[in-house]
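Session log. Operator J.P. requested a structure for one protein chain; no other inputs attached. Running the standard single-chain path with token output.
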Amino acid sequence: MNWDRIEGNWKQFTGNVKSQWGKLTDDDIAQINGKREVLEGKIQERYGIGKDEVSKQVNTWSDGIKHM
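Structure written below.
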């Protein structure tokens, strides 16, 4: 999915994000505000995983929401 679409409709995707990455708090979600770089940073921070793995997870997630 085009990230601009995700960013523009962030509120629609927040439940899905919380479902995928349950350690993200409501404050994290608000701070992310649809920004991919911020999302990846928060996932790295909460889960302690590397940038490449986080990028892969976010790509898989964003590809999967095409089918929603």
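Operator note: The chain has a mean pLDDT of 94.
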